[in-house]
Amino acid sequence: MNSTTFSSHISRYPWRWLATMGGVIAALTCGSIATVEAQGTIETSLAVPASVITAELAPPPNVPPTITRRTPAKVIVELETIEKRAPLADGVDYEFWTFNGTVPGPFMRVRVGDTIELHLKNAPDSKFPHSIDLHAVTGPHGGAMLTQTAPSQTTAFQWKALNPGLYVYHCATPLVPHHVANGMYGLILVEPEYGLAPVDREFFTSCKEIFIPRGR
Ligand SMILES: [Cu+2]
Q1: For residue 88, how far is its CA from the centre of ligand 1 (angstroms)?
Q2: Tens-place pLDDT, residues 154-169
Q3: Rounded distance, CA 150 to CA 129, Å?
Q4: How many whole angstroms from 94 Cα to the centroid of ligand 1?
Q5: Ligand 1 geometric centre to CA of 5 (Å)
Q6: C-beta pairs of 175-183 under 8 Å, 24+ apart in sequence
Q7: Which residues does 33 contact at the CB level (< 8 Å), separation at least 6?
Q8: 107: how many CB neighbours lie within 10 A of its CB?
Q9: 15-24, 93-102, 162-171: which has the minimum mean pLDDT?
Q10: Is the pLDDT of residue 177 over 80?
Q11: For site-directed labelling of 21, which of 61, 97, 128, 166 has its Cα 20 to 30 A away?
Q12: Where are the strands (E) in 44-201, listed by range?
């Protein structure tokens, strides 16, 4: 299923891709490091990245290609929080809150040693502020304090991935469960320094239940 087909599919059946993470790729661990400076920089250093690349993000159930480079890079990640009304079931629409327009949000893929510069834009027609807390970041709230972003604004922060693992990310704007329940969560994979064992195909899935009043 290509991304266009999938986008159409997820638009029609977004509930299939909702919630609790059922990633197929790796174990969940905690790690990495980040320090914080408002509107700016988090810096730790293992090595100076040799290149700057833009992260390839993939909407579920797709994942970006495995990382083949064996040196760290500076990785630019562009995310946008979008509030959008979409079908929940036949004849029933729901006001989803999303990262990049999908629920869950896009799958991110980096490697140990990468320095990630994450930009978070909140769409102009949003009604609420949003943010991001990546559990791959060890630091104050995983970036959430730096990325409380009002509609039409953009925030950014930088962190270094130190520990491999598959981590959840989510919006951390109060009330956090409200934002997560409306769809603001996803996965980031930090590959080990020498990559993962080859597999035939990678994908990720999730499941979730949403209960809404009749007639809504
Ligand atoms: Cu939010």
Answers
A1: 19
A2: 999 999 999 999 999 9
A3: 4
A4: 15
A5: 27
A6: 179/97, 179/128, 179/130, 181/210, 182/95, 182/96, 182/97, 183/14, 183/18, 183/96, 183/97, 183/98, 183/103, 183/104, 183/105
A7: 44, 137, 138, 139, 159, 160, 162
A8: 25
A9: 15-24
A10: yes
A11: 128
A12: 52-54, 74-89, 92-99, 108-111, 115-122, 133-134, 154-160, 165-170, 185-191
Find residue 80's DSSP bridge partners.
121
Q: Which of 77, 76, 74, 67 is nearest to 49 (CA)?
A: 74
H/E run at residue 23:
strand 20-23
Amino acid at 73: A
Give residues with Cβ within 8 angstroms of 19, minimum separation 6.
103, 104, 185, 206, 207, 208, 209
Here the tokens at position 42 are 């988090």
Task: Write down the H helix ranges in the chain.
Answer: 3-12, 176-181
- Does the pTM surpass 0.70? The reply is yes
DSSP letter at 64 equals: P
Cα(172) to centroid(ligand 1), Å: 6
